[in-house]
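To illustrate the input format used throughout this study, we show a single complete record. The first block contains the structure-token representation of the backbone; no residue identities are included at this stage. The design step must infer an amino acid for every position from geometry alone.
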């Protein structure tokens, strides 16, 4: 590997990209104040793009969509890939950890080269939607040659830029109500929604809008996230849907409405106008119902199980794997918080007594993280004294249960349940009711 052009200066990202890809086989590294961008090129064509903003959330999201046709890409397999490359990638490799992971999955025959190409092109397209929003500014850039660069797709620079700018124009038309695909829509209030929408639409929205951003909703509904945002913009204007800011680290990405290659300063896009007609709202309602009602009923809940006992983890997995759950098993409490941040589960099952960091210490850390406070936790233990201690030392609203396969009740600030519950029922009840 050989450095070809480390430099700093004022650049327009689109022009910088076109200049760099003419006679280079390697990668372009662009550093801003908060994000690094990595664009891999091969003599005028782009083969991959990534950035430093949680690339494994992006990769895992697309792998999950592939898992419906490729059962071997299960939640456990995806967690293995993430654990292998997120913290233990080859440090001297010019490839980003997520690119290394794709190459490894091809080597292991988890992905065939054609499917890897489709995956790489989709990931690249998503990264470019943020990259082309960068303004003309001073950047630190570095070009490096890479002998034997793995290539799974070959995207023409001009075509990719043109397609991306076309999508950005459509995103920009939703500004200022929508300024990022990583914003998270919530139902603003049932009372407001009931005045405007049918009970079916309100029910659908209440089950669908639980903290996922537009890109995650796109995966969940198997639809383009831009189309989802377009359907929701009328409900946002009427105050039925509230958009919350992107959570960290996605708040570091450039936003719509700023002057950049895809921004309004270059494209002359007018902000979305307020429309309050009943006809438009009813049209939006029908879109929501057709897109989400059936899907929301088939919600797949993400559950993280933290326990130092492999046998307990395996038993919990055995009980839940036939249900509508995506299970992630963690037997190292020191790594639990990092993985919980990455996965953003709907529910956590956690052992109280673990070496190194115990369950109520992890709960205390969760309480201090604004983007994790809302996640319900079921603490499991066979020691009633430890259970009381965990409840007493941790002020957050946890649901605590005895460590049996059929816990007798939840202990917490909600009324105790009046009948025995299976692990499956507890998981569903907690994930649905305590979010």
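Output of the design step:
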């Amino acid at each position: 590997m050989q450095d070809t052009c480390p430099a700093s200066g004022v650049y327009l990202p689109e022009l910088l990209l076109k200049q760099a890809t003419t006679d280079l086989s390697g990668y372009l590294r662009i550093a801003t104040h908060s994000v690094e961008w990595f664009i891999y090129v091969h003599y005028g064509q782009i083969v991959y793009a990534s950035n430093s903003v949680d690339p494994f959330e992006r990769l895992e999201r697309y792998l999950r969509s592939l898992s419906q046709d490729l059962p071997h890409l299960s939640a456990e397999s995806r967690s293995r890939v993430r654990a292998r490359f997120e913290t233990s990638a080859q440090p001297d490799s010019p490839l980003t950890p997520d690119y290394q992971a794709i190459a490894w999955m091809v080597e292991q025959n988890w992905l065939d080269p054609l499917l890897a190409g489709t995956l790489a092109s989709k990931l690249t397209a998503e990264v470019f939607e943020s990259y082309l929003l960068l303004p003309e500014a001073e950047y630190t850039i570095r070009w490096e040659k890479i002998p034997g660069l793995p290539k799974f797709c070959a995207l023409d620079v001009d075509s990719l830029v043109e397609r991306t700018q076309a999508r950005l124009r459509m995103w920009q038309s939703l500004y200022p109500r929508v300024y990022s695909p990583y914003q998270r829509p919530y139902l603003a209030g049932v009372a407001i929604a009931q005045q405007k929408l049918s009970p079916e639409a309100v029910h659908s929205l209440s089950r669908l809008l639980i903290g996922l951003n537009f890109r995650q909703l796109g995966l969940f509904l198997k639809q383009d996230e831009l189309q989802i945002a377009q359907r929701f913009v009328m409900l946002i204007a009427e105050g039925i849907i509230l958009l919350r800011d992107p959570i960290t680290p996605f708040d570091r990405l450039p936003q719509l409405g700023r002057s950049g290659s895809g921004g309004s300063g270059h494209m002359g896009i007018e902000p979305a106008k307020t429309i309050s007609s009943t006809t438009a709202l009813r049209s939006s309602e029908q879109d929501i119902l057709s897109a989400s009602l059936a899907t929301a009923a088939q919600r797949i809940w993400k559950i993280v199980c933290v326990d130092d006992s492999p046998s307990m983890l395996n038993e919990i997995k055995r009980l839940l794997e036939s249900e509508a759950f995506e299970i992630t098993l963690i037997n190292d409490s020191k790594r639990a918080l990092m993985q919980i941040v990455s996965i953003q589960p709907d529910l956590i099952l956690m052992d109280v007594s673990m070496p190194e960091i115990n369950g109520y210490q992890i709960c205390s850390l969760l309480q201090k993280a604004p983007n994790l406070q809302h996640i319900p936790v079921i603490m499991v233990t066979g020691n009633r004294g430890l259970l009381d201690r965990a409840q007493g030392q941790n002020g957050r609203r946890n649901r605590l249960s005895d460590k049996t396969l059929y816990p007798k009740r939840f202990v917490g600030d909600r009324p105790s349940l009046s009948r025995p519950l299976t692990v499956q029922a507890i998981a569903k009840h907690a994930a649905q009711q305590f979010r």
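Structural context for interpreting the output: Residues 2-166 form one domain. The first strand starts at residue 2 and ends at 3.
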